[in-house]
TrEMBL record:
The keyword Transmembrane applies. This is Sulfotransferase domain-containing protein. GO terms for biological process: N-acetylglucosamine metabolic process; sulfur compound metabolic process. It comes from the Eukaryota. Keywords: Membrane, Transmembrane, Transmembrane helix.
Amino acid sequence: MRYNKFKEPSQGGKKCSTYVIAIIILLCLISFLFSESIVTTLPSTHLLGVGRSIQSLSSNEIIGEPVNLTRDIEVVLQEQRRTINAEVLRNYTFPDEKLNFSDIDIRNLSPENNGTPIRSVIVATWRSGSTFLGDVLNSVPGNFYHYEPLLDHGIVQVRGPPLANNALNYISNLLNCNYTDMENYLLYGQDHNWLFTHNTRLWEKCLLYPHLCWNPQFLNKFCALFPFQSMKLVRLRLHLIEELLEDPKLGIRVLLVVRDPRGIMQSRKHRDWCPGQPDCWDPTLLCADLTADYSAAIRLKKKYPDRFRAVRYEDISLNPYKGAQSLLKFFGRHYGPNVKRYLDTHTKRNAGGVSSTFRNSRAAPFHWRSDLSHSEVLSIQRKCVTAMSVWGYVKAHNATHQKTLDPIKKNFILD
Ligand SMILES: *[C@@H]1O[C@H](CO)[C@@H](O)[C@H](O)[C@H]1NC(C)=O
Ligand SMILES: *[C@@H]1O[C@H](CO)[C@@H](O)[C@H](O)[C@H]1NC(C)=O
Ligand SMILES: *[C@@H]1O[C@H](CO)[C@@H](O)[C@H](O)[C@H]1NC(C)=O
Ligand SMILES: *[C@@H]1O[C@H](CO)[C@@H](O)[C@H](O)[C@H]1NC(C)=O
Ligand SMILES: *[C@@H]1O[C@H](CO)[C@@H](O)[C@H](O)[C@H]1NC(C)=O
């Protein structure tokens, strides 16, 4: 597209200099591609999954050997199979809870072997600590992480039709490692890499083999290697997940993560994408969602006592090791050295700015007490009476009280 812009003004006597500019641009593009070590010809039938910058070039502008996609895919799959075998299959112990995980033979879990992987889904909303918990789950070896699949929906909450259909389609396609009809998702990801960067085991391969990264043929097979699959959702309200819980072929386990609306709103203030977007910025909508999630949580807990659980972010943060252990147990995952290392490096200090998961986990949930003015807190509390009461959050009565109170009621249980 940039190339075309330069072509447009080429009229009459300026033609010659335009050609010179065009050639210079072409040379720049070629040297750029060399530096990225993508020097091969990409046959047009294989362009679907490749980055847009490459798509916009016609194949005869680049010289070299044609890529053998089939071969490259096989090489990467073989590499990853070896890694999974070494890290997971040889030495995996399931948590021996009443949930019967110990009966499972881990070798039979991967979709590649026609197995049902251990599928773990985290449902939350923006700024509720789900990034941290998602990364804890992903620190378990052998996990493939579908990070917020609804990123391309924008800053909206999916509460029902008409958005729900498409959203649930995305989710079940991904949980089934089926990228065949996921064009919009994959196109979005090419401009917004963080769709994949949290999926560390995939992203490692993307850096080494950029021409495979967004290719559905590759993704279908790569995803199917993994015995553990996780997903975090911040745009889908809880009641909609029931359709997926009902599906015995999926066998998902679902964790709802909730957080004090005052903490959520304080954290959202520091995001440039949030202010002004009603679903993100209006505490009335946030708290209506928290209340609706509570009703759904009560119902799901009764119906799926082993496969659904709700936690408050604050409870986990105050005791991250115990919290992580209990969550991993619920999800049927082993709390091993990798998870411990992740917690050691991510819960004890402040570093890395606002979007970082490196922070002092005991203090992070309560920053709102000093960061929000008392009138801001009052305004949120007025709109959140029900949500705060059902989830066990204590009101601040005055400015002094706000600075000193313990805002969470202890021993919260869903009943
Ligand atoms: C690509 O590689 C595969 C597997 O190594 C091989 O069977 C196939 O013949 C190759 N295709 C081309 C066009 O070279
Ligand atoms: C296998 O697991 C045991 C117990 O968790 C651990 O002590 C040992 O180091 C592990 N071996 C390997 C090769 O990871
Ligand atoms: C666990 O196993 C027992 C006996 O084998 C069975 O009755 C029970 O339903 C199983 N629980 C789950 C959650 O599969
Ligand atoms: C993948 O999904 C598409 C529709 O979304 C479906 O037509 C196709 O059969 C699915 N592939 C597999 C292997 O399930
Ligand atoms: C602030 O609220 C606390 C708790 O309700 C109360 O004990 C205290 O007297 C109040 N302080 C003022 C200045 O109103």
